[in-house]
Amino acid sequence: MIDPTEPYELQIAKQARIIEALVNRAERGHEVGGSAYSLFESAIALQAEVWEKTKDLEKALDTLDRASSELEVAYQAQERIQRNLADAMVAMEDGFALFSEERLQACNAQFRNLLPDVEPLIKPGLGFDDYLAAVNASKYLNREDNGLAGRPQPVAREQGSGQRFSSFVMVLRNDRWFQISYRQTSSGNITVLQTEITDIVRENRREKNRLIDQQSHLLQAAFDHMSLGICTFSSGGELLVRNERFGELLGVPLSLLKKGSPFQRIVEHVERHEILDREGRRSRVAGWFKAVRRGEAVQERFRRRDGMSLDIRIHSLPDDGFIVSIMDVTAETQASALLEQRVQERTAELTEANRLLQIHADEQTKIEAALRHAKESAEAAHTSKTRFLAAASHDLLQPINAAKLYLSMLTDKVGQPGTEEVVRRLKRSFTSIESLLQALLDISRLDSSGAEFNVTSFNLGNLLQGVAEDLAPLATEGGIDLRIVPSSRWVSSDQRYLMRCVQNLVVNAIQYTDRGRVLVGCRLTGDAVRIEVWDTGVGISEEDRTRIFKEFTRASGAAKGPGMGLGLSIVERACRHLDHPIRLASQPGRGSVFSIEVPLAAPGHASVSEDPRMESMLDGSLDLIVMIVENDADELHAMTQVLESWGASVLAADSTADAAALMQEIGTAPDILLVDYQLNDEDNGIETIHTLRALAGAEIPAIIISANRQRQFLQLCNEMSFAVLTKPVQLVRLRALIDWKTRARVA
Asked: What does the pLDDT average to over 562-572?
């Protein structure tokens, strides 16, 4: 009935009501019972209950008395703490305030009197955010930049649930600095402390100035002890620091070398008084300042009027300023002149001595001259070997190209028994000659110091398809099953050299495989593609695996094939230049596998210029006017016969002038131009195309036919929208490219 947690006054009141109820009940019992025994029994029970309640009441009173005593002690302790806190706040030199539940509870005079316009607001109950806003709005704050501490930070409350401490720097207009720090206690109260840091800031400022002055003295001392004339200027061209040597060497009065003097005034003084030899120098000196502002270094050598030579250099500084240094190089110049004079004198002496030796030993001189001439001839022959082979490609491939054109026509016309076999053997002989020449030219290019590569991104499937088309007849003739697994991967390499390498590997595999098959496929390995050529041929022994990559070398025990042993040498050279690793695994008697690792590339769009190889020669008559410009009469005649057999009307010329005259004679522009690059004298195919296009007033489609495979030449043709076919020309590519160029023009 009585809750012990309730206040003692309430418990006592409840006990009094209970006692009163019990007494009333006892009285009503006497009225109802009527017998003496019942009354006695009720009295005994009532007395026991009264004693129990009385004991409880006494305990409650004792507890209440103790609680009252403890409360009195707590009140006294709280008063002492408050007095001590007030005394401590008064004794503090810093401003201090206590906020409870975001409201000001207490503060000292230093806290209240810091900002006069905020003082009227600082009263108990002031909100913490209101206090921060009032401080930020105070007119006594210095809101300008300061060179020591930067721009003063705004007094603002940090956002974030976990923020329990924050500190700000506040600058007053009278150059007083205060640090405002507030901390949130574990009970949720906020204490604010205003600490004056003016002395610390001023001391730091004095220390900074002292260090700057000290560094300035050290820098000046270093400048003064240098033999060079040194002078530094600001980004605006004002003089900052210089040494006395600068004025001595330049001959400028001290009035112009004061701190802050403009660089332009010093230059004007030097030019006006002609201190330096100004022959051809005036425009350069006037442009010094502009050159330095562009970040360029300036270096000039002058001669003073008294004969002293000066080396003047100007360099920019990280703060957009610049430094000027002047060095006396008179001794160096004189020494150089003296040395040159001595060299001339010594040369004259040697010339005279040589003349005397020639007079007295004419025969010996003739012998030495003959030996020297022979040596020079041998060296010239040796050094020109590579250049000769590269330059000879045009003349070597011209007759082969013409012969292949005639063979193509002859194959279609012959029908007598045995004639086809003769033509086939003749064609195979020319193919062997062509392969050998191509191999020699490839080795010549790869061995030259200026080997060029055209690395692009292309689809590997087109390359493998071209290999399959080119080498399928060779595999069929040898009874070898050639299988090429298609691939849609894009790689980054020189397409021509990579195709040449794969062709050489496949040709070797076919030649050294008596029966079985040759498999070409691709395998992904990280960020690269490994092109692998498998065969079931004779295999390669361990000792031959490095030797076979040398020129004119074959594997031991292998039957002599139709080649010259140059294929693997070309593969090794090309892959070494292109940084494509080559791997070889082989078991004698069971076969070999060669692989070339090529880096992957992002997929792109294939174009005819990148892959001029076509699926097949197009059908139908070539109803076009084709102009051929070729200086070789046999090749011109052969190409004319081939094009006319396709149904084209051919205009043949051997030079740019003849082609222009022929086009003016017929009064119309041809549908397409087929032009050789190397013509007679200074004439060339690019000049021919420009001339005919200008004469026609239109972009006539053009194809350049040349043995030149240099990257610069191919890039130039690509930029000028010329298609390029390399000699010897494959007719299927020529026919398809003519159709593509003319159809593109119509579209």
From this structure: 74
Distance CA 251, CA 270 (A): 8
Using the structure block, give the residue that is written with the tokens 């004079």.
Answer: 341
Under 8 Å CB-to-CB from 639, ≥6 apart: which residues?
Answer: 402, 405, 628, 630, 674
Q: What is the DSSP letter of 727?
A: S
Q: What is the pairing mode between strands 649-653 and 481-484?
A: unpaired
Residue 228: its H or E element: none
Tokens of 434: 């062509």
Pairing of strands 672-676, 625-629: parallel
What token pair was written down for 344? 């001339």
- pLDDT average, residue stretch 523-537: 92
* Closest C-alpha to 684, from 399, 396, 394, 386: 394
- Joined together, the tokens standing for residue 516 give 């079985």
Residue 29 has pLDDT above 70, yes or no: no
The rounded distance, in Å, linking the Cα atoms of 339 and 318 is: 40
Instruction: Name 533's Cβ contacts closer than 8 Å, sequence gap at least 6.
Output: 502, 505, 506, 509, 518, 519, 520, 593, 594, 595
Amino acid at 305: R
How many CB atoms are located within 10 Å of the residue 180 CB?
19
Q: What angle do CA 467, 500, 479 make, to 5 degrees?
A: 45
Left (φ > 0), alpha (ψ -120 to 50) or beta: where does 478 sit?
Answer: alpha
- The Cα–Cα gap between 521 and 534 comes to 8
Per the structure block, which two tokens stand in for 322? 């610049």
Residue labelled with tokens 């361990």 = 542
Reading the block at residue 623, the tokens are 């109803």
d(CA 733, CA 713): 20
Angle at alpha carbon of residue 239, lines to 233 and 243, rounded to 5°: 95
What does the pLDDT look like over 462-521, one tens digit per residue? 889 888 888 888 888 889 999 999 888 999 998 888 988 998 899 888 988 888 899 999
The predicted-structure confidence for 141-189, as pLDDT tens digits, reads as follows 887 744 444 444 455 555 544 456 678 788 888 888 888 888 888 778 8
Sequence-distant (6+) residues with CB within 8 A of 325 are 228, 229, 230, 312, 313, 314, 315
